[in-house]
């Protein structure tokens, strides 16, 4: 009887002990999960590439927006808040409703901005230069009314286009920049059908071009005579002015990108490419047309074009600490390296990418340097810019190259040139076109 009892006790222990341990393990795991949920530390990690089909989400690289180390700078703190609002890990319900909805974007953006009041940063804000203080106080605003609209649906162009516009020239200008605008209209910015130039253009390559100038409002003290009235007359004559009701300053150039993307998304459904640049550059439009046509002929062009942006790419730049420079950005406003971006003389991107930039810009707080801001949006999209040596943001590297007979036939853009220089260059380009027809673009691009 004693032996039988020992056997049953041993069997009971062998069976029950694992069950008891399993129950304790489950209880421990439950307690730990609850504790982690109640004391969650907000993660700075974002959705990994390929996790979602939505291309507007991409990982933030460690070399940019290292928010954990730079949380005291005003812009970094503001951006950290908005990033938390759009983090798909922290807000899974938003992924189900879809963040492409404009109302969700705008409400999240304003909510994020309101959580970091500039008043609470008073000490840091007061130490900033006056122009950055002014920018910071208005950097949450994007709802500026339109004062002048182009006549055409998507800028000035030919009335009866037989195919979709290949290229829209979106040129940043000012109210006082009439001479620059007029020189562009008479030279590289002519709207309508433009023939290409080069070997691949001999078969009839060309495309329709449209044109629009992007303006804000100048300072009242800078207004000469009846400038608003003359601008209205200019718009009525050429139909290529797009003006918004915000003060046109260097730090507000970013607003022109953001408002242009919004306007483009509404008005330019058929346009394939966009050139966005300044009104003091020279653009080799025929070569640009041929180059863009070549991109459309590439295998799987439809997939490539969605991410297409090309220009003079700048890598690993740091904010200028020279207080005399117009690019000066103090560490109390922004800390860290700049993202990869294209030099501001001019850049070309696809219409598809322009619409994606419009959506993602609502998740990136405005930044005083417009070129850098575009790079920030590109980083947030996880899209890589393409560098091309034919974009000369800082002019020809040597005077010897510029003096070559076909030098300007080998470039897509040169910065910067005055209105009188544009007229002379265009006349010379026309005279030497036959001689330099097959001149290849400058090499060194990737």
Automatic annotation (TrEMBL):
Q: Which UniProt keywords apply?
A: Glycoprotein, Glycosyltransferase, Golgi apparatus, Lipid metabolism, Membrane, Signal-anchor, Transferase, Transmembrane, Transmembrane helix
Q: How does it sit in the membrane?
A: Single-pass type II membrane protein
Instruction: Give the family, as the similarity comment puts it.
Output: Belongs to the glycosyltransferase 31 family.
Q: One of this protein's GO BP terms?
A: lipid metabolic process
Q: Which GO terms describe its molecular function?
A: hexosyltransferase activity; UDP-glycosyltransferase activity
- Copy the pathway line from the protein's UniProt record: Protein modification; protein glycosylation
Q: What is its main location?
A: Golgi
Q: What class of enzyme is it?
A: transferase
What name does UniProt use for this protein?
Hexosyltransferase
E.C. number: 2.4.1.-
In terms of Gene3D superfamilies, this protein maps to:
3.90.550.50
Where it sits in the cell: the answer is:
Golgi apparatus membrane
Question: What is one cellular component GO term in this UniProt entry?
Answer: Golgi membrane
């Amino acid at each position: 009887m004693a032996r039988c009892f020992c056997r049953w006790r041993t069997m009971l222990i062998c069976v029950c002990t694992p069950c008891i341990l399993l129950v304790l393990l489950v209880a421990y795991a439950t307690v730990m999960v609850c504790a982690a949920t109640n004391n969650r530390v907000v993660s700075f990690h974002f959705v990994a590439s390929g996790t979602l089909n939505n291309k507007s989400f991409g990982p933030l690289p460690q070399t940019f927006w290292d928010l954990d180390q730079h949380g005291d700078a005003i812009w970094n703190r503001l951006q950290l808040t908005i990033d938390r609002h759009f983090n798909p890990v922290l807000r899974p319900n938003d992924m189900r409703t879809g963040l492409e909805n404009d109302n969700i974007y705008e409400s999240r953006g304003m909510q994020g901005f309101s959580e970091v009041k500039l008043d609470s940063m008073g000490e840091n804000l007061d130490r900033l230069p006056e122009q950055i203080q002014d920018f910071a106080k208005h950097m949450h605003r994007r709802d500026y009314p339109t004062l002048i609209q182009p006549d055409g649906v998507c800028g000035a162009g030919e009335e009866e286009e037989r195919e979709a516009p290949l290229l829209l020239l979106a040129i940043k200008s000012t109210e006082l920049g009439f001479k620059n605008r007029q020189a562009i209209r008479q030279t590289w910015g002519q709207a309508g059908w433009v023939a290409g130039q080069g070997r691949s253009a001999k078969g009839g390559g060309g495309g329709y071009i449209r044109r629009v100038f992007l303006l804000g409002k100048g300072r009242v003290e800078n207004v000469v005579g009846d400038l608003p009235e003359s601008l209205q007359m200019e718009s009525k004559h050429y139909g290529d002015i797009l003006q918004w009701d915000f003060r046109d300053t260097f730090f507000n150039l970013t607003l022109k990108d953001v408002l242009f993307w919004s306007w483009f998304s509404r008005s330019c459904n058929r346009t394939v490419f966009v050139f966005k640049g300044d009104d003091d550059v020279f653009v080799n439009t025929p070569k640009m047309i041929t180059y863009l046509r070549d991109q459309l002929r590439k295998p799987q062009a439809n997939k490539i074009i969605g991410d297409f942006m090309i220009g003079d790419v700048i890598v690993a730049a740091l904010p200028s600490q020279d207080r005399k420079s117009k690019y000066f950005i103090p560490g109390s406003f922004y800390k860290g390296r700049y993202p990869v971006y294209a030099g501001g003389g001019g850049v070309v991107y696809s219409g598809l990418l322009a619409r994606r930039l419009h959506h993602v810009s609502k998740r990136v707080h405005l930044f005083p340097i417009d070129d850098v801001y575009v790079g920030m949006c590109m980083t947030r999209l996880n899209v890589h810019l393409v560098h091309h040596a034919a974009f000369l943001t800082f002019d020809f590297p040597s005077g010897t190259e510029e003096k070559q007979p076909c030098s300007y036939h080998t470039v897509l853009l040169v910065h910067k040139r005055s209105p009188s220089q544009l007229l002379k260059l265009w006349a010379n380009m026309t005279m030497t076109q036959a001689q330099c027809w097959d001149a290849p673009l400058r090499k060194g691009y990737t």
